[in-house]
Design goal:
This protein is mostly helical and 446 residues long. It has a single domain, classed as Up-down Bundle (Growth Hormone, Chain: A). Helices cover 75% and strands 1% of the residues. Strands 1-2 form a two-stranded antiparallel sheet. Strand 1 and strand 2 form a beta hairpin. The longest helix is centred in the middle third of the chain and has 35 residues.
Length: 446
């Protein structure tokens, strides 16, 4: 129980181990999945800017990459949870890896077709698999030990997610963005009418640069499928396999802490995806940097995110999750304000710095919302994974704002790029309220 708004925790007797000895191998194996979906998330974010230039589409249209990618989470979360409830966490992981691999390999025929909609379907299939993985792995990690240490355990496992993200960013920067033809959008539009054959050749070259890494990723995921198929994993936290859908949903929908957690998670994921997806556009439009240079700042942001995740996981030993969540959301709100109202490099630095504040949020909201749910956590986890749908709805809206003219506020004029970050600002307000309510109202669940 927290003592104050920040949530400093009182000391007690001998603490329970975060990861019991008998669970270490299983914990390590399942934690590798966090890196696998982190890689998928962050090799994909820069593709919004890449497809815009390759296919000559608007910011709104190119952001449909995120709509398709995160739409898979939203659509498949509850079916995945029901499947896992009926079978097991391991079976859910295997289905997830299979769909993930299939989605990656679908990039090959999508490239042959040269059709944007085919790539969107490939992303959707990929994330149907990721939805299975996250719906399985997150509650599985929570169940691998004492409930008192569940949030710390999940934060520790989630700390390896941005490591995969960093590798994904590095691959996107060096093996995709750096290999794309340097002809800008205006030059490509001119070439499309004056030299269509040359334009087609450049576009095919760029599409091939995108396909290669996804093909390799598909093969890696297939290898992971084989490893998990062979491995013997404990049935921790699986409980009764009988489906009691009506009664479970009733309990979940009357649990204010859980429902508020789903809402907070949707806004958090929206903020995260918007800040990371459009950092390249911010660097291009506000500072005149190239896509490759903009992606470098995205990587700096992820490095900060990784470091902050480990620091915040340690701080959870001394402070309550709700109090720390609220404090970091306040920091995110302040830095987002800087991104909007401060011009030049300082605005970009503020955008990069937001990642330090976001590092704690996903696993902490997840842990707070599911704590104490018992066997209902399986279906409850689906609601929190479905909330990742916030990442499919908000980026297209931000892309649409970027497509508009500058905004005159009376006391100053904001470019459409900077104005678009009002959306993440609103998201952080929602997260602040959830952290506050967790600390002040839901104390008994801490």
């Amino acid at each position: 129980m927290a003592k104050n708004l920040l949530g400093k925790m009182p000391s007690s007797g001998s603490p329970a181990p975060v990861i019991p000895k008998e669970m270490i191998f299983s914990f390590v194996l399942v934690t590798t999945l966090f890196s696998l979906w982190g890689f998928a998330n962050d090799i994909t974010n820069p593709m919004v800017a890449a497809f815009k230039n390759i296919l000559l589409i608007s910011n709104f249209e190119s952001s449909l990459v995120q709509f398709a990618f995160y739409g898979g989470y939203c659509v498949m979360a509850f079916p995945a949870a029901l499947f896992i409830k009926r079978f097991s966490y391991k079976t859910g992981i295997l289905v997830g890896l299979a769909l993930y691999a299939i989605g990656c390999l679908m990039f090959i025929p999508s490239g042959w077709m040269m059709a944007f909609w085919a790539f969107l379907i490939s992303y959707f299939v990929m994330t149907c698999g990721l939805s299975f993985l996250e719906t399985s792995a997150n509650p599985y990690i929570l169940s691998m030990g004492d409930e008192k240490t569940s949030t710390r355990r999940l934060n520790f496992a989630q700390a390896f997610n941005p490591m995969g993200s960093l590798i994904g960013m590095l691959v996107a920067r060096n093996l995709i963005l750096a290999k794309l033809d340097k002809t800008d959008e205006a030059g490509r539009r001119l070439m499309q009418t004056s030299a269509p054959e040359q334009f087609a050749a450049i576009r095919q070259h760029d599409i091939d640069a995108i396909i290669g890494p996804y093909l390799v990723l598909g093969l890696v995921v297939l290898a992971a499928f084989i490893v998990f198929a062979i491995a013997r994993l404990p049935r921790a936290g699986e409980g009764d396999r009988t489906l009691h859908l009506g009664s479970t949903l009733k309990r979940l929908f009357t649990n204010a802490k859980y429902i508020e957690g789903v809402v907070a998670q949707a806004f958090y994921v929206g903020a995260q995806i918007m800040c990371w997806t459009f950092i390249i556009q911010y660097a291009e439009n506000e500072l005149g940097l190239t896509k490759t240079q903009g992606q470098a700042y995205n990587m700096y942001a992820m490095g900060i995110f990784v470091s902050s995740r480990f620091v915040c996981t340690y701080l959870l030993k001394y402070f309550s999750p709700g109090g720390l969540l609220m404090s970091l959301a306040l920091g995110g709100l302040t830095l987002t304000g800087g991104t909007i109202f401060i011009k030049g490099m300082m605005g970009l630095y503020c955008l990069v710095g937001i990642s330090a504040c976001m590092s704690l949020m996903f696993p902490t909201i997840y842990g707070i919302a599911l704590k104490g749910l018992g066997d209902d956590a399986k279906l409850g986890a689906a609601g929190l994974i479905m909330a990742i749908g916030g990442g499919c709805l908000m980026p297209p809206v931000q892309g649409w704002i970027m497509d508009q003219s500058a905004f005159n506020l009376g006391f100053m004029t904001l470019s459409s790029t900077r104005m678009s970050f009002v959306l993440p600002l609103i998201c952080f307000v929602v997260i602040i309220l959830y952290g506050l309510r967790t600390s002040m109202i839901h104390l008994h669940t801490e």
